[in-house]
Amino acid sequence: MKSPIKVAVTGAAGQIGYALLPRIASGAMFGPDQPVILQLLEVPVEKVMKALEGVAMELDDCAFPLLQGIVLTDDPKVGFGDANWSLLVGAKPRGPGMERADLLKDNGKIFTAQGKIIDEVGAENARVAVVGNPANTNCMIAASKARRLTPDRFTAMVRLDQNRARTQLAKKAGVQTTDVKDIFIFGNHSPTMFPAFGLATISGKPVVEVINDDAWLQGPFCETVGKRGAAIIAARGASSAASAASSLVDHVRDLTTVGAVHSVAVKSNGLYGFDPEVWAGLPVKTTGHGEYEVLTGLELDAFAKSKIEATNKELSDERAMVADMLG
Ligand code: NAD
Ligand code: LMR
Prior knowledge:
Elements: E1 5-10, H1 15-26, E2 36-41, H2 46-62, E3 67-73, H3 76-79, E4 85-88, H4 104-121, E5 127-130, H5 135-144, E6 154-156, H6 159-173, E7 180-181, E8 185-186, E9 194-195, E10 201-202, E11 205-206, H7 207-211, H8 214-226, H9 228-236, H10 242-255, E12 261-267, E13 279-288, E14 291-294, H11 302-321
This protein binds nicotinamide-adenine-dinucleotide and (2S)-2-hydroxybutanedioic acid (LMR).
């Protein structure tokens, strides 16, 4: 039996937390032979901590063989202490009529504090996945506070967008989602994101040939994927939770599966014309446990380049808005 890894989850009493924790404890994230200790972090509010106790009771009641311990805390130093992975979910969700960037000022503060503490107390191989919105910019803020952990340790989730895009393409073509490959998200987790359909294939053939409808691909397809979060809020009265949790499982599982090719928001370092300092969704290939390299040299047409320019501008603008929180 492997020794257990420590997985810190913030916002563990929230909606996403509720859908996420049983998946981690069951082995869906780190594999069926990897025991885990869950370090669940919440805010110091009696009602919330009580709810967190209830979540832990339910985890106990599942009798997951891989779950070797549960820590409940409102102290970030305990929550992130020696954590191998820190999953930063805890933050305000947006409501109807809001954009994710409207959350920046409130949520940004959470990530300044957490980036610093993870850097101080996380495990030597600590890795971070940010879900709380606006995820790309929050991730950049957290990474900017680190002195020990290098920027590549900090990733943000655009996997939900990749999964959404994959399903929309499969439905349009009348195939299974597994027939759709290499659909990557470039840029921000926001309506400006670009699902790069020109690189994707369906049953081994280019999507543009199989679907053969540029107007749909450039218009309704991009729009549906970009605005899916708002559509769910309008329908459910609350932001996506089950699909967000499931996508975080995919994000971390693929970052720990050598050879996996998938979309992750990482420090762009200027690739594909992005501002070098922003965290942009990019296609990556996993090269080790949590290690990856960005796929370079992929061919993008003029439409793709114009979409990337727009999403890059939004990321740069968000960076300017939080300049006082960086470093
Ligand atoms: P929620 O309100 O149900 O739960 C959030 C939880 O975080 C609450 O229990 C709250 O007490 C806790 N929290 C707040 N500040 C914290 C802190 N400093 N430390 C620890 N815990 C803290 O919200 P939710 O639906 O679970 O969504 C969480 C976040 O995820 C939101 O910002 C939402 O917009 C975002 N989200 C992102 C994606 C994505 O694809 N990146 C998808 C869905 C939701
Ligand atoms: C989503 O994409 O569903 C989440 O980011 C929640 C939101 O605010 O849209």
